[in-house]
Design goal:
Blueprint lengths: L2 H4 L10 H23 L6 E5 L6 H9 L3 E5 L5 E5 L5 H7 L4 E3 L15
Antiparallel strand pairs: 1-3, 1-4, 2-3
Length: about 120
């Protein structure tokens, strides 16, 4: 008998506590992402754009380049730091596909690991 055969189905047909916990965690993370996105837009001339994680690094790079000058890449291929003297950088990045636009100073993911000398 394998592991799937040993698990008894839920006779009530209602989702189990694991499914409820997963749903609650997902909703909480979504709410946190929305809160971060709406309350931490960058005020300066640079921004860290977080593109969808399933995008390739090249696609994120190309999308960010349409909004301003790329100054560095983040620790993940979908995080790009962009600078522009023109107003509206955050909205241009969102229009280009960024899921979140944050202040790069406050975002620890923007620092790529550097070897110690």
């Amino acid at each position: 008998m394998n592991a799937l055969q040993r698990v008894a189905p839920n006779p009530s047909g209602k989702p189990g506590s694991g499914a409820i916990l997963a749903l609650t965690a997902g909703i909480s993370l979504f709410g946190l992402a929305i809160t971060i996105a709406t309350h931490s837009s960058p005020a300066g001339d640079s921004a860290a754009a977080i593109f969808p994680p399933w995008w390739s690094g090249a696609k994120a790079f190309e999308a960010a380049a349409t909004s301003g000058q790329i100054t560095r890449l983040g620790a993940f291929p979908f995080v790009v730091v962009v600078r522009s003297d023109d107003p509206g950088l955050a909205s241009r990045l969102r229009d280009a596909g960024a899921v979140l636009v944050l202040d790069p100073v406050q975002l620890a993911l923007c620092d790529t690991p550097r070897p110690r000398i």
